[in-house]
Design a protein that fits this description.
- There is one protein chain.
- By secondary structure, the protein is α+β, with helices and mostly antiparallel strands.
- It has two domains: about 220 residues, 3-Layer(aba) Sandwich (Rossmann fold), CATH 3.40.50; about 90 residues, Nucleic acid-binding proteins (OB fold (Dihydrolipoamide Acetyltransferase, E2P), Beta Barrel), CATH 2.40.50.
- Helices cover about 25% and strands about 35% of the residues.
- The protein is built from eight helices and 18 strands.
- A six-stranded mixed beta sheet has the order 6-7-8-3-9-10, with helices on both faces. A five-stranded antiparallel beta sheet has the order 13-17-14-15-16, with no helix packed on it. A four-stranded antiparallel beta sheet has the order 2-1-4-5, covered by helices on one side.
- The chain is globular, with a radius of gyration of 23 Å.
Amino acid sequence: MGSLTLNKIEKSFGATKVLHGIDLEVKDGEFVIFVGPSGCGKSTLLRIIGGLEDSSGGEVIIDGVRVDAVPPAKRGIAMVFQTYALYPHMTVFDNMAAGLRQMGTPREQVDARVAEATRMLHLEDYLKRRPAELSGGQRQRVAIGRAVVREPKLFLFDEPLSNLDAALRVNTRLEIARLHRQLNATMIYVTHDQVEAMTLADRIVVMNAGHIEQIGTPMELYNSPANLFVAGFIGSPQMNFLDAAAMGVTGAKTIGIRPEHLTVSPDSGSWKGTLVHAEHLGADTNLYLDTASGTITVRAFGEVRYPYDSVLYASADPRHIYRFDEAGKVIA
């Protein structure tokens, strides 16, 4: 239960085409995350899978059955939104049970499913509370629990953590990861946050301007990006891009070096620069150097301190220099 196939999915809003023939296979039990900048089409694609948006062409197939004309309630999916969408006048228990009651599920099954979901999500102490009495993270866990009790073929998450503060995002991310392992369910998740994608996904789908740029495991995308866009989107801080000719590199238009693959020295190195900013993060330090080729970022392990305007030299690990051609594609 829970496989998904997308064949040539297209979507236009009037004369504006936002999805350009999307093909994707999701296996039963996979956790697949769509990432990309705002406006790339990732949420539109998720809504098409869920039946909340009609495609302009192509096929959506769930468990071998084409569902393009099937209403959302009949697709065997459950969606979790960033806005929670809870009934304010209902208790946590009633919010989680409402969908099952509407489907005519026997009371014993409703009670059993809600009890299991609340156990998984650590909500046992909140069943009699209403949404206004809960924190943002607790409300999101209730919204997730409401999806869990339906026992869907597919879980669809549309930026579910974007309204939470940093600490709650981390905690709720752990809850979702644990839930996926417990349920062994198929989950499709949309986010603009590549850290969420790297820490949760079995596979990541990187989208840009309605196209899929690359699909792969988090480390495949990190270590072997297909092009400049993926290389720049995956990894934090962002990969440094430098003009290949200016750096004396032949056969390429651009070279890319991740900040963590650079070292810095006050004495000597490949590129001379001036320290213009430093981010002291405790576990590591991000140093920003103005060089003749532009500003580059160096990620140094631990606490590293140099005075501002210091002259420093950066050097790259030659095993981790990426070369890109005129079209932005990686050169193997």
